Amino acid sequence: MNSPVLTPPDPRTLRNAFGSFATGVTIVTTSGPAGSDIGLTANSFSSVSLDPPMVLWSLARTSANLDAFRNGTHFAVHILSADQEALSSRFASKIADRFEGVAIERGPAGIPLLPDCMARFACKVAYQYEGGDHVIFVGEILDFSHSARKPLVFHGGRYGMLLPKQGNASAQPVDELSNLSADDLLYQVSNAYFRTRQAVINELEHHGWTSEEYAVLSIIGREDGLCVPEIVARSEKVRGQAISTAIVQKLIGLGLLHKVDSADGEARVRLTTEGRLAVMKLIAIRKSSEADVQGNLDPSEVQLLKHLLARLEHPAHAVTSN
Known about the structure:
Layout: H1 11-18, E1 23-24, E2 26-31, E3 37-42, E4 45-50, E5 53-60, H2 66-71, E6 74-79, H3 85-92, E7 105-106, E8 112-113, E9 119-131, E10 134-146, E11 152-155, E12 158-161, H4 185-206, H5 211-222, H6 228-239, H7 245-253, E13 257-261, E14 267-271, H8 273-293, H9 299-313
Antiparallel strand pairs: 1-11, 2-3, 2-6, 4-5, 5-10, 6-9, 7-8, 9-10, 11-12, 13-14
């Protein structure tokens, strides 16, 4: 009985299939000729053994750095944290000196070590294997370090961030008069909004500012030279309710704003010197409140939260009515 003839897989399709497996991102470093520093981004990393402690990674035969790793006696694998995407991109680029301006330490045999990674393994080369179009390097761990940072993730040809899966939230209503439960998205978004907004309002009131005054100065601080109807319209979009035109007049009376005639005959509102100083103070108050609100989140979670909120604001498939 003849064996079926297998058609070789399309390389692009096969690469896409491999990319469906989410991995961490690493930078592997070694010392090259004349003590030069060599480093590149790789996601072909895996643990091998605990006893003895060993790891492996692979490098394409076409890599310009292949000889440096083949001839080297030691290498280091750095597992990158979520805030090191720029460093990953740098070591994946074709710039002449990837280490320029990067702080490094020295490991065994003088290999360069990058700081502030999620984990780092300094290794002695134990074995090298031929693996098709790649060379597989196995290293015995001589020293390592790790932290509680969040990892940088790579999936489908794109960087990503890890979102830990939460436990099941209660499906019971929040209260007897509500049909929303703690697991409802709208409840969580609105609850988070009011909790964070209230923190800012409390801080403003402590400094003698009302939320309406803050809204007007913030709007003018971003778009100096609006007319009063434009200020009111923008405040309604941002706050969900329009501010009173009396607030604008009050701030003019306090010397923080002043009206200027424009070519279209519409009086425009601009900040005075005192108004600009007030805006700077308000920005400092807001930033302080934001820092307090973000206290339980690490930088990668803050970035992820901003990304998700932006997607909620601009959904990919908006529903329209005819």
